């Protein structure tokens, strides 16, 4: 008679669904997380270790830097940091590492030859025995090590935005990144742009106020002061009130000013008086402080008239065309709008509880003669967000502190503001449009304003139910939201907080397929994104240290390790009272290059009587509760594009099991955990079970 061996069963479950802090342990889907950091919901399935971020100023990005490997017979003193020159080829390179006869180089220029002398400062230190191979390491781990060395070497070149204090905001215009920061003395606000040599300050021009217009002044006109003899070229002719022939008043933005225009003098073009100077010309300046919000608009109908419009709460609204910074005067006594939007061919600005809009296709005109007007909202406005569309056509969401309203209509003659009746208001800088819906943080958590065909056209949908305890904890600790972004390529909404953390919402249409927490290790004060002409989606953020960082790139947090973990829910295999001998786990995974991850398990809701086979120090995880604090780790190292069979042995008997993945690395590529197959043997019912 053949001996009977214990039956081995298998059970597969997908990983996904994000962090779940509210579902009871016994009913929680096993693919969800009970604790996590720096994993994101994968657009297809599973949880993905995030990309990093790196400092940015327009120079060679650290993550794109190459390294070269050359072998040599070393005969003299050669050290990391030396610049070597090939005596024959005249090629140069910076030594990043030396391992035996292998020299790792960065910043290589030219082509090294085999057999040539390698010199430092004119003295031969080695003789090459090979040519230099770009990114030529044969071992995958060596490759990521050398890649990180090259990235760190380039990273040192990239500078902070000149000035002082935090980054005040930024935008991308015609594929160029622009950023605001206060000057060194914090007496003015400056604007900088990326270049191949780093940040370069944008020079502001001069402006001249005018009244008494009798004829129109055009862009490109050369104006002359009839009394002063001063001359300048008109960059922008901005009529604010009246008309060009009756009581017109406004601003001329000037370049190439020679001399000083005088108050009250006639301003002429070709000897013909056009307007009267209302004061001397003055330099355009920005006050320090504020939080810049910027949007793109086009009031001219051609690609050449596409411009940036912005507001920050301490300065006048502005227009920017890549060269000229144009302050926009509305006539308000305190002319410092906080929020900005472009909607229905008008520029919209908020002044506390006042919503104002310009004339049609006239962002400089704030007079009723051109259709400009004001709407009182009754409470502080926290955002102005154009909606993609609903049954009444495109509309405008006006968020206020404790509610919101939807503005319908196409012109000042039929604009209709419909209050929501809801007592939920969105927090400033948390609102993002994804698809046809708007996402943002309210007092009741993250809510989506979803377009419908029902009465009212919009309805709320709560998104953050599964992480509501975490949001409540942040609120109790005084943690505030700081920024948000919509990542279209990943179909994500990301919400950042003042404690350096972020919640990333993975979206599948109007449904959330998972919410996971991130920790950037530094506060994200402002964030902006764009789709470049190449089709690449880019995201930048500013922090308190004055650096601009490019997000979702590289393998590190600007050279520091990305510490990540993912603790899955306990899985009872649909038999919560049945003990099982757990034998093996097989993880369905993918890797985007090279990655090393430590994986372990916990039994019986962290039952302290179930001892691990060996003792190793375990990384303490926040919010994990009373789990056993010593583990046997199994290290998975992946160096292929697709890995389908990462396995670990298990030795333990309990009613349920969960898994923990942990990594902390500055060099590893992202990886994805997609699912788990468990091999187990059913045993008896747990004691006390009926």
Report on this structure.
It is a single chain. The chain is flat, with a radius of gyration of 31 Å. The chain is mainly beta and 690 residues long. The strands form eleven sheets. Strands 1, 3, 4, 48, 51 and 53 form a six-stranded antiparallel β-sheet that branches. Strands 6-9-8-7-10-11 form a six-stranded antiparallel beta barrel.
The end-to-end span amounts to: 34 Å
* Helix run count: 2
Largest sheet: 6 strands, antiparallel
Q: Report the C-alpha radius of gyration, rounded.
A: 31 Å
Question: Which structural traits does this protein have?
Answer:
6-stranded antiparallel β-sheet, 6-stranded antiparallel beta barrel, mainly beta, 690 residues
Summarize the model shown:
The chain is mainly beta and 690 residues long. It contains two helices and 53 strands.
Secondary-structure blueprint:
Layout: E1 9-14, E2 33-37, E3 39-41, E4 47-49, E5 53-56, E6 67-74, E7 83-86, E8 92-99, E9 102-109, E10 117-120, E11 123-128, E12 133-134, H1 140-155, E13 164-173, E14 176-182, E15 189-193, E16 200-201, E17 206-213, E18 222-225, E19 231-241, E20 248-258, E21 266-269, E22 272-277, E23 282-283, E24 293-298, E25 306-311, E26 317-320, E27 325-328, E28 340-343, E29 346-351, E30 354-357, E31 373-376, E32 381-386, E33 396-400, E34 403-408, E35 416-419, E36 432-434, E37 437-442, E38 445-451, E39 458-462, H2 468-476, E40 481-487, E41 492-497, E42 501-508, E43 511-519, E44 526-531, E45 537-542, E46 548-551, E47 562-568, E48 578-591, E49 595-603, E50 634-638, E51 642-654, E52 657-665, E53 671-685
Antiparallel strand pairs: 1-53, 2-47, 3-4, 4-53, 5-46, 6-9, 6-11, 6-12, 7-8, 7-10, 8-9, 10-11, 13-14, 14-15, 15-16, 17-20, 17-22, 17-23, 18-19, 18-21, 19-20, 21-22, 24-25, 25-26, 26-27, 28-29, 29-30, 30-31, 32-33, 33-34, 34-35, 36-37, 37-38, 38-39, 40-41, 41-42, 42-43, 44-45, 45-46, 47-52, ...
